[in-house]
Structures are given as C-alpha cells and as structure tokens.
Design goal:
single chain, 115 residues, mainly beta, 7-stranded mixed sheet, 11 strands
Amino acid sequence: QVQLVESGGGLVQAGGSLKLSCVVSESAFSFRAVGWYRQASGKQRELVATITGGAGGGRSNYADSVRGRFTISRENTKNTVYLQMNSLKPEDPAVYYCWLSGDYWGQGTQVTVSS
C-alpha cells in the first residue's frame, strides 16, 4: 500500500523559511513524478510544484505564485521529496499535500505565516 507522510509544517513569520519533507513508501519512487499541492481555507487545492522521475527525471515545474521562492527537490535513495519555501508571504498559508503520480496523496501538513 502506497503511503505518503509529510512533515515540516508549522508557524513562521512573513519573510521566513520552512522546509517540508514527504517520505513515500513506494518501491518505484525514483520513476514516479511527485510534487506538492496546497489548499487554503475556503479555496480549491492548487498545484505548488512538481518534479519528474525516471532516467530523465528531476525536471521541476512551479506555480507562478511560488516560482523563485520555493524549490522542489527529491532524494531517491530516501524515497523523499522536499519543498524548500523561502520568503514566505501572507498568501502562502495552507495545508500542503504531498502528491505521487497515480493520484496518491499524503494527509497534509499545515503551514501558517504570521505577519
């Protein structure tokens, strides 16, 4: 059974940084695309960033709202995907979900930004 477990959320001041981690229990992790989505209160879930897998993997894609501030990366030997979030803004607070291609999701981790 595929499981995704996020960690690293919390409270940070505007302008600060957080790093999210997601460990994926999937033997073919290195071949799969993974990423992060977020859902703010009262809003739809939206893409934050994804990164491809496989031999040509490591290509990343970002939402316009986070490009240049957030960085997605993966460590295949640890079945882990990361999201480094810098220069956090008041509009970034949400529950951040880890995603694995094939429509697998983590339970989410809350990110709160204080002004």
